[in-house]
Design brief:
By secondary structure, this protein is α+β, with helices and mostly antiparallel strands. Helices cover 34% and strands 29% of the residues.
């Protein structure tokens, strides 16, 4: 399952978000709606993994050396299982919402094996700032 695309979504008063419809059937088939959510180790966003992808990622993170102890703590220490409810929503815990400054609007972005979930205003600001930075060198030879 390759997760791609982006959607702007609402965060309700209880901290729930609805997973966009285009992903729901695949998530039910691939992981029976069982997901894992955690904090990104560097960015102010959340990472949401289908259960099978989480197991692979968690194993990789657990093997990181002691020099990455804080990054490992941010990921594994904030990880928690979540399940799609009958309305295809998941709950973002108050602690995780606070960690990433999550407001009432969010951006969910498919990023291959997982989703990133950003506060919408923060995402827009970071995206605009990235447009002012030079592209990484490896993109110099990219053509379409």
């Amino acid at each position: 399952m390759l997760l791609e695309g982006a959607s702007t979504i609402a965060v309700d008063a209880k901290g729930r978000i609805a997973i966009p419809a285009r992903y729901r059937d695949d998530l039910e088939q691939v992981c029976e709606g069982k997901l894992h959510i955690t904090r990104h180790f560097r960015e102010d966003c959340l990472l949401l993994f289908p259960e099978n992808e989480w197991v692979t990622f968690r194993t990789m993170v657990a093997a990181w050396p002691n020099s990455a102890a804080w990054q490992k703590r941010r990921i594994l220490g904030n990880a928690m299982p979540v399940e799609l409810d009958t309305a295809s929503r998941i709950l973002l815990s108050p602690d995780l919402r606070e960690e990433v400054q999550m407001g009432r609007e969010a951006k969910i972005i498919g990023n291959g094996s997982h989703f990133e979930i950003w506060d919408l205003a923060l995402f827009k600001a970071k995206d605009a700032a990235s447009m002012q930075q030079p592209d990484p060198e490896f993109l110099d030879n990219l053509s379409f």
